[in-house]
Design brief:
- The chain is an alpha+beta fold and 526 residues long.
- It contains 12 helices and 15 strands.
- The protein has a 6-stranded mixed β-sheet with strand order 9-4-1-2-3-10.
């Protein structure tokens, strides 16, 4: 055993020698090489992260093709191309009330000026009258009336562009549920509710009960605040009152979303975005805008909300057999607002690029483009009760129509409703007075009013040059006439005054003169 221990010990000696073997120190050149390799690995990792970040935050490309137009055609109306301001983007933001039928009751035009870090938002009231070919001409009906989806968006683009003079770059359709989910995602929103809000509508599965005052709203309460309009304590100004509340709430929401700590919620924002928002922007585009706003220095001081300058009007509806409440833009004020805060082009827009509806004092409607799409709009006034202004005004959201609201195809420009067309375009001379052959008509029965007596001087005609077979019966053969009987042809036709001779000329002048009932679009809109 002792021998074995020695033998075992002898075997263990080499192992002990190995553990004591020291590593060869790195040369200076090897140290530099190792440091360089580590540095390259770190740089590579950073580049990968940077590439991933750059790929995630993508600047959107502004559409260049005009909506439904042709680059090579000179178009009247909204501006479709031109030199643009640098990094100036416009958006059409649409809030759909799915519980209330899906009408676009919230329409916002937004403009984000990135170099100046300024965000401007204009609310377009849902009751804004637009030039469409159906009876209820409220802008909130355009999206649904055209079937929603892409066609609905294109139709709404068109009507908004007629109001502001340009086509917005991008659209964002938001379901109301997205507002509630976003509020919950950021942990609630602090907001000063302007009034007690109590409203119940089982048909829409809508129950709003929020007390007035500064408080932290959860998602359900927030949705109630932005949807509340009428009820026990509703707004006296209806939708315009709701718009004011929506603007102050959205500003509070944006302020809290811009806080740097909310960037940790970016993936939750992306989920809400993909589930509840329909848009031609990608999640990466939205992330790019968020990055520019948060790290670019956008603050609440540079976020401005405004309501489209407008005037409330009441207009007869052939579908409801009652008046409907509308708002019509104030043209001059609207152009000033657009050029100051929303126009993406370097050149100012003008009124010629707008198609603004207006209401005349007699209740007829017209538009600044001179072409009313609904040719029956003014003719339907004949069915209005004689009380006129005393007719009840109804809300189409809660009232059933008497007749279906069917779009009317616009008529040929030559037959446009004269109430909306320059009276000078009417042709008073529809009958050519020169189509009657004077040689086949008995001169005694011809209406002298159809011939201009001033163009022929009967006193200068040589009777000797007249063919006896076609002699005017007013020239009597002296050989065959009793001199005691007065010759009916003795009176000189050139000295006789025909009271009817000037009638066509007077009628023509009257028809070509401007009609006193025609409204001046600019003054009516103002």
């Amino acid at each position: 055993m002792e021998h074995d221990r020695k033998k075992g010990g002898a075997r263990s000696a080499p192992a002990a020698a190995k553990t004591k073997r020291s590593k060869r120190p790195l040369s200076q050149k090897e140290k530099k090489r190792r440091i360089a390799l580590v540095a390259l690995a770190v740089i590579a990792a950073l580049l990968c992260v940077a590439a991933a970040v750059m790929a995630f935050f993508q600047r959107p490309e502004i559409p260049t093709a005009p909506i439904g137009g042709d680059d090579e055609v000179e178009l009247e109306g909204p501006k479709l191309s031109g030199d643009r301001k640098e990094d100036f983007f416009t958006f059409l933001i649409i809030g759909r009330d799915t519980g209330g039928g899906g009408n676009t009751d919230t329409i916002l035009l937004a403009a984000y000026d990135i170099p100046n870090q300024e965000l401007n938002v204009m609310s377009i009231p849902r009751d804004t009258m637009v030039n469409v070919n159906w009876d209820v001409k409220k802008i909130n009906s355009v999206y649904n009336f055209n079937g929603g989806g892409d066609e609905g968006i294109q139709a709404l683009y068109k009507e908004v562009s007629e109001l502001v003079g340009f086509v917005p770059d991008f659209s964002i359709v938001v379901e109301w549920e997205a507002v509630g989910e976003l509020v919950n995602a950021i942990g609630g929103v602090w907001y000063d509710v302007p009034r007690d809000m109590d409203y119940d509508d089982p048909a829409q599965d809508l129950s709003i009960h929020v007390k007035a005052g500064y408080q932290k709203l959860d998602g359900e309460q927030a949705m109630g605040v932005v949807r509340f309009r009428e009820g026990k304590n509703g707004y006296a100004t209806g939708d315009l009152g709701r718009i004011e509340t929506q603007q102050t709430f959205l500003k509070a929401l944006i302020e809290q979303c811009l806080q740097i700590d909310k960037m940790t919620k970016v993936f939750e924002y992306a989920r809400i975005f993909t589930e509840q928002v329909t848009t031609d922007l990608t999640v990466n585009n939205m992330a790019w805008f968020a990055q520019k706003a948060i790290f670019g220095g956008l603050t609440s001081d540079n976020i401005h909300f405004i309501t489209m300058p407008c005037t409330t009007k009441s207009v007869w509806s052939r579908s409801y057999h009652a008046n409907l409440s509308y708002v019509v833009p104030n043209v001059d004020e609207l152009i000033d607002v657009v050029n100051e805060s929303f126009n993406p082009y370097l050149d100012d827009l003008s009124s010629s690029e707008l198609d603004i509806m207006y209401v005349n004092s007699d209740g007829t409607i017209g538009c600044t483009s001179g072409r009313l799409q609904d040719s029956k709009a003014n003719s339907s006034l004949a069915s209005r009760p004689s009380s006129g202004g005393g007719t009840e005004t109804v809300d189409p959201d809660v009232t059933d129509p008497v007749e279906p609201d069917v779009p009317v195809e616009p008529e040929d420009p030559g037959t446009t409703d004269p109430g909306t067309t320059d009276p000078g375009t009417t042709d008073p001379g529809t009958t050519d007075p020169g189509t009657t052959d004077p040689g086949t008509t008995d001169p005694g029965t011809t209406d002298p009013g159809t011939t201009d007596p001033g163009t022929t001087d009967p006193g200068t005609t040589d009777p000797g040059t007249t063919d006896p077979g076609t002699t005017d019966p007013g020239t009597t053969d002296p050989g065959g006439t009793d001199p005691t009987v007065p010759d009916p042809g003795v009176p000189d036709a050139g000295t006789t005054t025909d009271s009817g001779a000037g009638l066509p000329a007077n009628n023509t002048a009257q028809a070509l003169a401007p009609q006193s009932g025609a409204a001046d679009p600019a003054s009516a809109a103002a």
